[in-house]
Design a protein that fits this description.
It holds the Pfam family SH3BGR. Keywords: SH3-binding. With 175 residues, this protein is α+β, with helices and mostly antiparallel strands. The protein folds into two domains: 119 residues, Glutaredoxin (3-Layer(aba) Sandwich); 42 residues. 62% of the residues lie in helices and 11% in strands. It has seven helices and four strands. The longest helix is centred in the last third of the chain and has 52 residues.
């Protein structure tokens, strides 16, 4: 099984180039066998990618942007789903590959058969942990925002007090 990563080598978008580099770099670093297919220079690659991305995964304009990831003919996902799988440490399941022996992914897969069940159950089942994670991250971000806001309010209050102390002194000098 070969992982296929569809990229656009002549993309003008810095965001797309960074996403492509992150996917390719991760696969290389983890010695995952993959094939990089250019959609910018090869019409057949572009057509195949567009036809094989599932309808529910296509953007509103109907044209999926690279990088798009497949395991042979099986669609794995786009950059966002790749990133989520990487963060949740289920990248091998996402790619439809067996984790290397002794890796954390092996232990996780052995502990619960959820990864395969989620993959078989479709994207909805697989997206639940991600949604929970985002909610947790949202709470964390909210807490951090509240702390920053409190610090700013305290700083402003101190500034107002300092200004208030200067005013009587200034008035005394003028009188």
């Amino acid at each position: 099984m070969v992982i296929k990563v569809f990229v656009a080598t002549s993309s003008g978008s810095i965001a797309i180039r960074k996403k492509q580099q992150e996917v390719v770099g991760f696969l290389e670093a983890n010695k995952i066998d993959f094939k990089e297919l250019d959609i910018a220079g090869d019409e057949d690659n572009r057509r195949w990618m567009r036809e094989n991305v599932p309808g529910e995964k296509k953007p509103q304009n109907g044209i999926p942007l690279p990088p798009q990831i497949f395991n042979e003919e099986q669609y794995c996902g786009d950059f966002d789903s790749f990133f989520s799988a990487k963060e949740e440490n289920i990248i091998y399941s996402f790619l439809g590959l067996a984790p290397p022996p002794g890796s954390k992914g092996t232990e996780k897969a052995e502990e619960s058969g959820e990864n395969e069940a989620q993959k078989e159950g479709g994207e909805d089942a697989g997206s639940l942990p991600g949604a929970q994670k985002k909610e947790e991250e949202g709470e964390t971000a909210t807490e951090e925002t509240e702390e920053i806001t409190k610090e700013e309010e305290e700083g402003e209050a101190e500034e107002e007090e300092a200004e208030g102390e200067e005013e009587p002194g200034e008035e005394g000098e003028e009188s």
